[in-house]
Structure formats: C-alpha cells, structure tokens
Amino acid sequence: MSLLTIAWSMCAGACAIIGLTQILLSVREPRPQRKLYLLSATMSFAATATALVELALMKSQDVARYGRLLQWENLTIFALLVPLVWFIHLRLHSRRAWLAITITLLWCATLVINFAYPYSVVFTEITELDAHATVWGEPYANALGSLNPWVLVPNIASVLILAFIADAGFQSWRAGERRPAVLVAGSSLLFIVMAGIQAPLVDAGLLDMPYMVSFAYLAIVFALAYELVDSARRTAILTRERAAALGDAREAREELERLGRASLLGEFVTGIAHELNQPLAAILANAQAARRQLAGPAPNVDELREIVDDVVRDDKRAGEVIHRLRGLLQKHAGHRERVSLAAVVRETADLVRAELQAHDIRLALELGDPAWTVEADRVGLQEVVLNLLSNAIRALREVPRAVRALRLALSLSDSTLCLSVADRGRGISAEAMPRLFDSFYTSTTGSLGMGLALCKRIVEAHGGTIEARNRDGGGAEFRVTLPMVKANG
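Above: the chain sequence. Below: its structure as tokens.
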C-alpha cells in the first residue's frame, strides 16, 4: 500500500474517531453544550470525507471524474467551514451573528455555482491532469486548466471567516476567557490560513503537491475536540467541588440549627430541673416508705403495691421529660408519621410549665379535637411550638405581671389546621416585621437569630405557612397552618 494512501486514510480514520467520540459525549450533555458537540462531530465527519476525496483526486486519471471529485470536495469543505463558524459563534459568544449568517449565505451560493459548472467552482475547464511524484517516487495527479472567476465567492467567504474568528477570539480574550480564545480561535486561524494558502497555490499550478486541506482541518478538529473534552472535565471537577461545598454547608447549617435548639432549651434549664425534681423526689419518698414497710414485722402488701405503682408512674413521668429533651437536641432524620397536633402542642407546653409559673404567665390551651392529625415529623413540630413559646415568654417578661397572658389555640378551616400562639407582650416593631423570619436576624441579646428562620423552614417543608401580626390591644400573634390528614386518609 502506498504511503499517500496510508497517510490520508489515517487522517480520515482519526477524524472519524473524533466525530464518533463527540456524538457519544453529546448524549449526556445539556442542550446548549450538546449543540457544540454536534457541530464538532459534523466538522469531524466532513474532514473524514475531505481526506477520502483528496486521496481519490490524487489517484484520478480521468478529467471528468476529477471535476466531479472537486465538486464533492467543495461540498465537504462547506460542511467543515459553516459548522466551524457557528461553533465559534456559540463557544466564544461572538456578537457578530450577522457575519456568521453572511458567511453561511456566501457558501450556499458557492455550492450552487459549484454544481452549476462541470469542473466545480474552481475551474471552468480542466485541460489535463498533470502527473507528479513525491520525493519517494509515488505518483499523484493535479489539474491544469482555466480558473473559474466565481472562485472569488468562496475566497471572499474565507477572508470573512478569518475576520470573524479573529474578532471572536479577541472578544473572548478581553472577556478573560483566554484558554478558549487560544485553543479555538488561535488554532482555527492558523490552520485555515495554511489550507487557504496551499489549496489556491495548487489550483494555480504554482505548488506541486497534493491537496492537504484535510490535514489542516484535522488539526482544527482535534483542537476543538480537546477544548470541549477539557471544558467538560473542568466542569465535572467544579460540579464535584460545588457538591462537596454544598454538603459542607448543609452540615454546617444542620449543626447551627442543632445549636440553636440547644440554646433555646438552655433558657429552660431551671424549669426542666424542676420538672425532673418532682418525680425523682416522689420516687425517693416512695422508696423510703417501702423500706420502712419491709423493715416492719408484717409488711402491708396492698400498701407496697400502691407504692410500687407510684414509683412506676413517677419514673415514666421523668422518662418522658428526658425523652422529649433528647429528641429535641439530637440530630434526627425527620421521620414523618401521623400525629395529633393537639398532643404535640400539649407535650411541648409541659416542657415550659415551670418557666411559665416562674414568671406568672397564665397559659390558656384551646386545642380542639385530639383527632385532628397531620402527617409530620413530631420533633420538628415540637421545635416550632417551643420556639414560638420561647419568643412569647421572652416578650411577656417585659410587661407587668397582671397582663401576662398566653393563649395556644387550634382551629380547623376546610382541610387546614391553624395553630395560633398569641401573647399580650409589646408586639413586633415595624423595623423587625419584614425581617422576622430571616436567618441570623434577632432583636434579642445572646440569641443566634435562627429560631423563626428554622420554624419557617420546618413549616414550609410540611406544606404549611407561618405568619406573624400585631394584635389589637397589644401583643403579637403567630399563626401556623398545616394540611390536615383526614381520619380515613
């Protein structure tokens, strides 16, 4: 097999492989990036066809056949240059769409002229095929004849292409995208100039060598493919880094929210200690009474049974307090279940009972039907109620004891449950109202400013809403609405 055949066949094969690779890569890309891959693949397959046509031109011995091959070569060059122009327009964000359209129209006119003449847009007539030989003695053919004056049309298009690429590369460089400016615009300019000089010199008979347009475009195709693949690689790296950063941010936010809950519960340490002290003291007293009974000559079994029952009851009471606190402080997975909203509110209110008593705050519970249920994360709802209660207690500390009243009420409207937490404190200032649910916003010294933001996130995650308003006559009201689960749902 001849070296010319080997070289041009390898060029064709390389272009075809690059084209197939671009097709495969385009499948998993988003639509804007997919266009670039498909344009690059079109250029690759066109370069493959150009290499095969050039090889056939070198081996041609018939003038008519040579003219037809020239026509097909101009078609393959059209399929190279027009996609190249639009590739650069998209990749480098060129502002000269009108110039890209002009180039496309000129090449469309070139194709019409190309197939209107028997010897293509290059020649009006081919008088003979001039036989040449390579330095190693392998023969090839070039055409001699009259140049077609219409060849000026593709030549003008080629000059416009160079201007278009240079302008796009310059704009990309100025915009800070220097890598694509060099790889895409720089390589395209270099090899188009090489092909644009070599082919006309061969047509004019001034250069004795085969057409090498395909090799010039192989270099362009390789450069564009490399840029696309490298860009995809860098995008994948950035995506992984962004995902890792988001994961870290999510963990930090969850930890901050956990600290917010811990800070909130810290305010009720005294009350919680009181809640635990009562059942523990009762357990101790009952245990001492049981010891005295057992130390006597005839222990009263019925009285011992009552003492043991009291111990069990008080132990469960202490266990419930500890369980609620542990649930609120731990990192939880947000398990959803059907829960009675009234029961959640009552359990959470029990946690702050001692705090309410310490500040002479009267609590009114209007919890409606215990059968009103929601599909929710129980601990999440407890966090919401506890935050709202904490804010209300803090507000009521600032007013005279005689007016310290707090009301928790549940109501049903259609299929929506509404929890109202209303106090008679000083209300919400006009300055604070717009930012009330923003993260890290607080008007309280020592607070993290995460309480109401956390409430909003939890409520919205359950498909509900939370809003605040000032009450007539003084005080504030927070209203939480949640979708109710029907009894047979």
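The longest helix spans residues 213-266.
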